[in-house]
Amino acid sequence: xxEENALPDPPFASLTRYPPDAPLLFCLPYAGGDVxxxxxxxxxxxxxxxxxxxxxxxxxxxxAEPGALAPEPIARAVAAHLAAHLAAHLAAPxxxxxxxxxxxxxxxxxxGARLAFEVVRELRRLGVHPPRRLYVGAAHPPERQETLARWxxxxxxxxxxxxxxxxxxxxxxxxxxxxxxxxxxALRTDMxxxxxYRHTRQEPLGHPIVAFAGAHDREVVDPEMLGWAxxxxxxxxxxxxxxxxxxxxxxxxxxxxxxxxxxxxAGSPERPGEDEVHVWLADLTRLxxxxxxxxxxxxxxxxxxxxxxxxxxxxxYVGRCVVLRRxxxxxxxxxxxxxxxxxxxxxxxxxxxxxxxxxxxxxxVLVALAWGHEVGADxxxxxxxxxxxxxxxxxxxxxxxxEFAALPEEMRLPSALRTWTAKEAVLKASGDGLxxxxxxxxFAGQQPGAAWIPDTAPEVARLAEWRVTHLPLGRAIGAVxxxxxxxxxxxxxxxxxxxxxxxxxxx
Length: 507
Prior knowledge:
- This is Surfactin synthase thioesterase subunit.
- There is one protein chain.
- Strand 4 (104-109), helix 3 (111-126) and strand 5 (133-137) form a beta-alpha-beta unit.
- 32% of the residues lie in helices and 18% in strands.
- The strands form 4 sheets. It has an 11-stranded mixed beta sheet, with helices on both faces. Strands 13-17-16 form a 3-stranded antiparallel beta sheet. The chain has a two-stranded antiparallel sheet with strand order 9-10.
- It is α/β, with parallel strands linked by helices.
- It contains 13 helices and 18 strands.
- It has 3 domains: 3-264, 3-Layer(aba) Sandwich (Rossmann fold), CATH 3.40.50; 274-373 and 489-502, CATH 3.90.470.20; 381-483, CATH 3.90.470.20.
- Helix 2 packs across helix 3 (111-126).
- The radius of gyration is 24 Å and the shape is globular.
């Protein structure tokens, strides 16, 4: 079969009315989905984007041809059709940007996100002008196995039950045989694609990746989507919605609004929602301008910076202070070069309902911000412990120390850093800091991926109210502590420039 024929004809379904100069948004649906997966976007994008949904094999009762299900032919076929569509736009007498390349982006949901990622890499191989953004929704990063790939052995009824119970599909699927007749073959087509998918390492993409997660998604929890940040050399952002896996059906208009604002750079900063924490990660090695902006320091900060003997340490200290002050200003808190106010115990505060916590490990800075409630954050680079014995004696309780000693050596470092970042985040959130011995509370027996709850000694029982969420950050581990058992995570990497770009919250 010729690869250009791997997609049905026509390869795209048009979703919106649009002016001639409208930017393009190519959409790849979730497993089993077709153009109807994006119905909620018809009105939201109407007049703003030329939205085209890719038509994948095995839909509308059609059986996919043998060979059409392999990941590489599908990705190459989609990329070839996108390239042809973009070339046609380039040849048309339409007033685009000065470089004449039509502005476009790609959105993929769940399985569609993985396919979109491979399509963008194929476009790069073809030498096609890159998209302005890759938008991904409800999807593990490509090196992780997707859930549907593990469901290939289920019969039709079992598959429907998993869709309802795990992914939030409508319960009406049980009693709609005509829908199942169309849906199940398409699902099995896509499951074959996922089963055959193998991620290969390449250079990161050179354009931003913006991710969307559902706070109630049982399969792709929001911190797991941070893994997408490793696949771009540009910046990354994560929005979390108060929704499940299929948030296109329930919060489609909100996702569309966020895409429009992001694509055009419009909108004004918004504070975090009451159920939300905004987290920013700054790699100071990529922010040389911030590390030299000593004129933005307070007198006390400038004096401390001057006392550093090593230039790198001095630059990192300046950078962390400048990043924090710029972020606070971006959220409406003008600090100027005044000293930050502190509470008894030394915890800084803004004098408003905006709270924050800062942590630094080498050239990495993590800043968490919340509105109307306290937050604590910590980050640690993955680097060997200088003294394991001293760490265990000073930081772990007896149960934690026993668990640590029983671990295989290759698991000790990430386990130690998960425990340490959790304790630091709790102590920063509570304001106790160094006044509490970290061995007086612990997290023995708690598993990665779940919210951690402190087990405390009687004298620090107040710490039991905090809940810790870990952030997998590639070469580092982060942790955020809040009182609520769940919160919506809004994550972004800080970009180089005179000040960080604006912030907007996904609601």
